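Could you please consider the sequence and fold appended to this message?
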Amino acid sequence: MDAATPTSPPTVAKKPVETTHHGRTRVDDHDWLRDKEDPEVLAYLEAENAWTQASTAHLADLRQTLFDEIKARTRETDLSVPTRRRGHWYYSRSFEGREYGATCRVPVSDPEDWAPPRPAEDCAPEAPALPGEEVMLDLDALAEGHDFFSLGGASVSPDDRLLAYAVDVVGDERYTVRFRALVPPDGAEPAGAPNDVLTDVMGGVTWDRDGDNVYYTTVDESWRPDKVWRHRLGTAQSDDELVHHETDARFWTGIGRTRNDRFLMIATGSKTTAEWRVLDADRPELGFRVFAERREGLEYSLEHAVLDGRDVLLVLHDHTGPDHELGVAPIDPTPAEEWEPLLPHDPAVRLEDVDAFASHLVVHQRSGGLTQLRVLELGETGEGLPAGVARDHLVDFEREIRTVGSGSNPAWEQPTVRVGLLSLALPTSIYDYDLRTDELTLLRRQPVLGGYDPDDYAERRLWATSTGGERVPISVVCRRDLLGPDGEHPAEPLPLLLYGYGAYEISMDPSFSVSRLSLLDRGAAFAIAHVRGGGEMGRRWYDDGKLGAKQHTFDDFVACARHLVDAGWTTPERTVAEGGSAGGLLMGAVANQAPEQFGGVVAAVPFVDPLTSMLDASLPLTVTEYEEWGDPASGPEVYDRIAAYAPYDNVAALDYPPILAETSLHDTRVLYVEPAKWVARLRDRAVGRREVLLRTEMSAGHGGVSGRYRAWHDRAFSLAWILDRLGLAG
């Protein structure tokens, strides 16, 4: 062994800090790790990285094998299905040996033909993918010289002559926007692009209809998007006009433009309350007007549509019920009491979003834990339907367990709907649904090289019983040849990776992963526990897993793990749990509450110190998160509730399963200090195995490393550790 290779975990100094709230005193030995400018902190993180590398050195060959498998299954030189917007088809390209690829476009050759152009099968990396290709952004060139690179929003001006694009080269999600000239629709030489540079922008920009101005959002010191600005091309950022400033620290704000370019809309919202401002480009003298003033507990969103020959705003809202109703209102400010129902509230159907087009509406909804696409065709009013709606139906998919959604559909006048379909076994499949014929045309299925066949894998939906008799859905997949004679359960218990999240009403719907095949093909199963706190079963599912009901999230995950054991799918020692961010909080909580149920835990960018973070209103996101977790400074009840499950506060003298904690130094959403403190306390207090590892990416953000090859290596590291815990590393 090299002399520099550590032979034991690093030690970390204890520097106790005592705090008292509501008569409760906490002593935190490790909060000094918060200062990432401190050389001692950086040295500790590097020492942990060295120990992690030393502890997993025996997996080095497996990591390389896993990377090679991911690479071999991926078509490295590829392009997305082109999407039509005004006079061009837009698509992205990837190239063998390149991390980031390019964004491109070609002119529309036939305005009447909405079938996307197809490239030649043997399209070479150095050749145009389609005739007339214009490379708008060479992302590898932009990333050159940077350890981290992320493209934020990239938006083309309404006259198709300029591109505004946002770049982050640190990982802190504070973007710099620049402008680039594009080939004009008439094919003339591109005019010069403005040299304007906008810094510290949140994501990207929105053009106005005339293309003379862009709007963008900035954040305050706590990383809350709080200001919307208007920038006139050719002027300095210091001269930009502040259009809206949201002063309530619970609320974020942002801006967008409607599909037909007529309206600019500023959305302002907290976790439970919304307020929108609307600028009508046909009546700009009116300025931005509040559509419906904020009312505590009232959520709504807006979309412009033309129904029965009149301009209206579609209002998706919870005024009449928690699972939302789709209402109709005039384009002028209108209170909730005057919104007319288009799709009334139905407690069995959660309405999640609506997209409006000239000839139809597409409603994203879910029922029974599964996603659905609903199409309302516009025209002469059909029998029993609202005015202006000719037909109301679901897009039919034969696959029982699946995730469906609409893809990129930017054109107001398009007669088709771009649809995405995938599952745990089915690679992402892109269709065009033609409203004129009801036909689904498969445009592209994510290629998986090496002879992959989805039918070689079996997907099942199971149900666990949790607190209060609640039935919790589980999605599970394994190789079909591992099932027993009944075809429903494995012939013998399998090694199993169980994933969970459970927060923000975010649904962990079944999805496909190339890297997961390396797990499945070695004989493991993969499952998702659709726990409360997510949105899989409607708004009630979310409400019953947050604030005072947060413990249900943890109960559900443990119940799912136990059900998988009881049903013969796995055993506790061959079950590894995985979750990230708020799902990392879930991992920390179940490790404290049911350590015997798991043979390993992977916690990615984990929110494991919620009590400290929620007590500090200056930290990113804290105040906006009060409606998710509660404000522990507000009183002892909330303080005690969070303290009762907070992973860091509840580390005890337990025999924890092996734990791999992964974080990023520049993460602004969940600070690296949380897993760093957690690992230090686990090492100090745990008994028994005490196999705890911390891996910190020193140049990455919340989403981890950038670049696809680096991301593959990153996932290979985690997968190798998981396979080792599952007994499949050999």
About this structure: The chain has a mean pLDDT of 94. The CA atoms of residues 151 and 184 lie 23 Å apart. The longest helix spans residues 708-725.
